[in-house]
Design goal:
elongated, alpha+beta, 86 residues
């Protein structure tokens, strides 16, 4: 994650949106991720000085649960099985 965020900082003009791909929030979202993206624990946004430019960092909520996730997972599983059968 740190590598990807560093790359995003290098490419960003003035805003980075971080989208945690978790179904549920928790300690990882509130305490672990924010400091890794330059914002304070339990915060959802902050401003970072990077190479002489100010970059606003916004931490989106976790993606949550959607009934379609099961369909996507099943589809990917079927694709993998189909591609790898002799």
């Amino acid at each position: 994650m740190e590598e990807a965020f560093a790359k995003a900082l290098d490419l960003a003009d003035d805003l980075i949106l971080v989208m945690p791909m978790f179904m549920a929030g928790g300690v990882h979202i509130t305490r672990d991720i924010p400091p890794k993206i330059g914002i304070a624990e339990r915060e959802k946004l902050g401003c970072i000085d990077h190479d002489g430019k100010k970059v606003m960092v916004v931490l989106a909520p976790c993606i949550g649960h959607d009934p379609m996730f099961a369909d996507v997972i099943l589809s990917r599983a079927n694709e993998a099985l189909k591609e790898n059968r002799a």
